């Protein structure tokens, strides 16, 4: 069994990742729910919002960390 060394993760990076996961994961989850409800436009909007949030997250990670 291997262990992941998390001692090199700064508190700022941890908080940034946590906040974006709190935003990105629910957007995709809600999008799937909207698709099952037959609301394709709302689902696609949520998927687009999730992708946009992910791209912003990647930009922040590149610029700050």
UniProtKB/TrEMBL annotation:
Transmembrane segments annotated in the record for this chain: 12-32, 44-64
Superkingdom of source: Bacteria
Presence of the UniProt keyword Transmembrane helix in the record: yes
Keywords: Membrane, Transmembrane, Transmembrane helix
Protein name, entry field: Uncharacterized protein
Lineage: Bacteria, Bacillati, Bacillota, Bacilli, Bacillales
